[in-house]
TrEMBL record:
GO molecular function terms listed in the Swiss-Prot or TrEMBL record: hydrolase activity, hydrolyzing O-glycosyl compounds
Coiled coil: none
Biological process per Gene Ontology, one example term: carbohydrate metabolic process
Segments forming domain GH15-like: 219-588
Record domain Trehalase-like N-terminal: where: 3-133
Originating species: Actinorhabdospora filicis
Protein name as it appears in the record: Glucoamylase
Length: 597
């Protein structure tokens, strides 16, 4: 049985990521990329689907953990009646290798440690050929091969083969150190040389601390904001500049339910919003790399624009089911790939153009490729925005005229018009202005319900959607406009419970729109959107109180999943989630800009 989601921490090397639990078990790791097959998939099943545990044999050990400074180096301390031991886990930022390093240090007394190494390729399905070998330094190692992939486990104490797994125990005394490393390499190549764990630890800490020093945010929530920015950076695929929405697949939005999706891909929306959060806090290099990824990825016919791509820019993300995995706490199906990549979602144009406008304002100049491509995308949108789409939440019902999609289409055209007006960039500005005004007039006439005193989820729906909170923050209407204030109040009335805001109402009555059975947790980004909307509309005290309540939902190392289930007091959904962390950053920035911030 996997641990509750919030009891995991993130390790990452800017190409893939691992989840390690409070019990010292790495229960999720895809190699060599975020979207590769998992070699440890216990989080979606059980121990037999792959994991690597280093922890005390005493199941009652007390656990504390932390990231070392502003890094992704994780320290977990286990205290038993006989002593205390520290486990340090990290993945060196990719130097054309994929390594996980683990260091066990005796702090007090002595602690008996156990090691369980269960390796399964292809999401727990394939048992590799495993053998003991000597590496090029003459050290004993455990090598495993299956198809194109190979892994090598090295360590000061290696476990023994027992019934298709490896197990062992050893005692750590005060002052003693035991190092371990796991290395992926192509199976047709020779075993890579062993890297010294101590040297890699120093280099990894130096890398993350140097990166963190570039953060320009100095507000009262700096530690929390920086942890969110570090998480966003960890979800970046350094080779291309793409950014995944989360490092996991099929962690359920409702435990036991079917809302289980693969988020190990680059959503243009999530990445664009992450980009704006990074740009606003001083990280322009990431903006430059992401823009280059975007331009390469979407080049071609603008009508072929997808809402998501692979980390290398891949377009085909076919969805299939890993039916040998029971799913997290029996939440089936486990999906690999994402069929939503074929949906039309016009809001993506707005988020992308807004993020590129922020990058432009931060000094990232346009070139002969970047601006013409943006202009082509806007031309395509100007011709297509009247079509129904699937909306920001990727509903699997029939496409509709979602109000938020229309508003974000207005944003895309507005940012294009301003690029011409303020930066002198070329474009058919009169046609763009006309389309912008046509969208605005239609939204005000069709998307606002006077009886509700609110904008609606889609034209004529009579229901609200938390994404409508963005109407007042994107410039479509000022916060002082009574229609904006009425929408904020309607979202609070209809979708807020305690500090949490749901995306939209899910029930059997809305199943036709949603295309799925009802029931999910509260989408955390929506609550942070409400903080931002309140802060920017002069309700700063309410916003700050809500923000501080939401921060209590972070786990012990500052991470957030996609959603929160208050009935269970647990995080749910894929973990950690870029959308949750980027909206946390945007909320903190809005509070800083607010009067008295």
């Amino acid at each position: 049985m996997p641990l509750p989601i919030e009891r995991y921490a993130l390790l990452g090397d800017l190409t893939t990521a691992a989840l390690v639990g409070t019990d010292g078990s790495i229960d999720w790791l895809c190699l060599p990329r975020f979207d590769s097959g998992a070699v440890f998939a216990a989080i979606l099943g059980g121990h037999d689907h792959g994991r690597w545990r280093l922890g005390p044999t005493d199941p009652g050990a007390k656990v504390t953990r932390r990231y070392v400074g502003s890094s992704l180096v994780l320290e977990t301390e286990f205290t038993t009646p006989t002593g205390r031991v520290r486990l340090t886990d990290f993945m060196p930022p990719r130097d054309r290798r994929a390594d996980v390093h683990r260091r066990v240090e005796g702090v007090e007394g002595e602690v008996e440690m156990s090691q369980e190494y269960v390796l399964r390729f292809d999401y727990g399905r394939v048992r590799p050929w495993v053998r003991r070998v000597r590496d090029n330094e003459g050290r004993e190692a455990i090598a495993a091969i299956a198809g194109p992939d190979a892994l090598c486990l090295r360590g000061d104490v290696l476990p023994d083969a027992v019934d298709h797994r490896h197990e062992g125990s050893f005692t750590v005394r005060r002052g003693e150190t035991y190092d371990f490393s796991l290395t992926w390499y192509p199976s047709h190549e020779k075993l890579p040389r062993c890297h010294d764990t101590g040297e890699r630890l120093t280099a990894t800490l130096n890398y993350w601390h140097a990166w963190s020093e570039r953060c320009s945010y100095t507000g009262p929530y700096r530690e929390t904001v920086l942890r969110s920015l570090l998480t966003l950076k960890a979800l970046t695929f350094a080779e291309t500049g793409g950014m995944v929405a989360a490092p996991t697949t099929s962690l359920p939005e409702l435990i036991g339910g079917p809302r289980n999706w693969d988020y190990r891909y680059c959503w243009l929306r999530d990445a664009a919003l992450s980009l704006s959060a990074l740009v606003e806090t001083g990280f322009t290099d990431e903006a430059r790399a992401w823009r280059a990824w975007l331009l390469r990825t979407v080049a071609g016919d603008p009508e072929d624009l997808q809402i998501m791509y692979g980390v290398g820019g891949e377009r085909r993300l076919s969805e299939w089911t890993a039916d040998w995995l029971p799913g997290y706490e029996n939440s089936a199906p486990v999906r690999i790939g994402n069929a939503a990549h074929g949906q039309v979602q016009f809001d993506v144009y707005g988020e992308v153009m807004d993020a590129l406008a922020a990058a432009r304002a931060a000094g990232l100049a346009e070139d002969d490729f970047s601006w013409p491509l943006q202009a082509t995308l806007v031309d395509s949108l100007a011709a297509r925005w009247r079509q129904p789409d699937s909306g920001i939440w990727e509903v699997r019902g029939e496409p509709r005229a979602f109000t938020h999609s229309r508003v974000m289409s207005w944003v895309a055209l507005d940012r294009a018009v301003r690029a011409v007006e303020e930066y002198g960039l070329p474009g058919p500005v009169d046609a763009w202005r006309a389309a912008r005004e046509e969208i605005r007039a239609e939204v005000l006439a069709e998307g606002f319900d006077p009886a509700m005193n609110s904008f609606t989820q889609y034209y004529g729906s009579g229901t609200v959607d938390a994404a409508l909170l963005e109407i007042g923050t994107c410039g479509f209407l000022p916060h002082g406009d009574p229609r904006t204030a009425g929408t904020v109040d309607a979202v609070i009335r209809d979708l807020k419970r305690g500090p949490l805001v749901w995306r939209y109402a899910t029930s059997h009555a809305t199943e036709k729109v949603d295309g799925l059975p009802p029931g999910e947790g509260a989408f955390l980004a929506c609550s942070f959107w409400l903080v931002k909307a309140l802060a920017e509309s002069g309700r700063e005290k309410e916003a700050r109180l809500l923000f501080e309540e939401l921060l209590e939902l972070c786990n012990d190392v500052g991470l957030l999943a996609e959603e929160y289930e208050p009935g269970l007091a647990r995080q749910v959904g894929n973990f950690p989630q870029a959308f949750s962390h980027l909206t946390l950053v945007h909320a903190a920035l809005a509070l800083e800009r607010a009067p008295g911030g």
